[in-house]
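Case study 2.
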Amino acid sequence: MPLTGRYIGSELSVVERELTFNDNYANVGFVKYDTRDGDYFFLNPSPFLKTFKNEIYHVSEHPPPENQFVEVNVIDEKTVILPRTARKSISVKEVDSWKLFDPTPLAQRRKILDYEEIIEYFTYPLTGEDEVVEEIAGCSSLFAFSSPPIEDDIGGIKSAIFGKNYQWDLFRKPLKVIPDDFRKTSSDYYYYISKLERNLRKTEGEVNLAIFQPEKLVSDIPIYFEGVKERKHLKDYYSLLDQESGVITAYMLDSLLLKPQYTSKVEAMMHDAVYELREEYYSSGQRPYHQNVGDALPKLASSYARLRASPDIEPPDAKYATDLWFSMFRKAEKITSNPAKVSDLFQITGDARKVYYKLYDIFGADYWIPIIEAVEVTAMVPEDVEISIDALVEKGYCVRKEGHIMLLEPFK
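Prediction:
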């Protein structure tokens, strides 16, 4: 079902229900312009659903920003006849002021299901050792709930899937909770799940890629289907799963509105964890895939916070992401017969190497450097500095947060 075709209560997210049916939010919504200048606009209940209300808003000057949640102050309302149209008439609400509205408190409200039940849902096609099944389901859940962008990079989770063909099919089954609308490249939340790698040119939003046995993909986490088989169910059980998948989709739509933030305590945990991940990855003699070293754990922890409907990334989120990655990597590294040499531990070249050493000489490691200062110190154009930072992050020699980067020691 397309997202715009939903109308049953259980199919709607909490934010969508509240903004549609609760009079306290009668003039709150997600702005979509009807005219190019924004003088006329609709307030939708979410980015994923058009309003059910037969109304439009008008402001004489300073329209609210499009694609943002706002609350407007209505000073007048009138009905306008629309000849030769399906609507026939529409209510026009005159607005004299508006303010931004934060949907976070609504998006994090307790849902019909809790996050552990969602992880449990992703176990339904699998049978095997409980711990193995739970880990695979956890990885699938993190993929489904995506991750907001870190700094200016795109968001999303990239997963390298390893296993047999039938296990690839088992991975895909519960991912029907991801709406078809999100499988279009035009979506701000894009999901590509395939055996074929492709070049994507999306530079904004969240891009989630799950590729079966990839050769080029730089992955945030591998998902290895070790020792699991298909679990059979009665026909009636699949009917219940269909109902549950709709509820999980609604939960997911609320979670995607959350942009979880780090506390200083978690930031220090993630900093140490990136060092551990880098050492584990580069000291391995066998690497069956390419790893995003610097950004992976922050992304995975952010996705887990979303899964818990939390606006904050807390220590349990960092621990869950770190433990899951280490467990999956140690399983995945067993499957290759082509060991990689440890001599490529610090394979950064050209501008990336120059940026690293120039900044390291001045600031050292483990210090947050404003990106503006990094551009000034290196005397390079900002675009080249950003490309170099991307390369350093991928290799695990740099981490980033809004407006800042931190170099990591070459060896630790």
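The domain at 347-407 is CATH 1.10.10.10 (Arc Repressor Mutant, subunit A).
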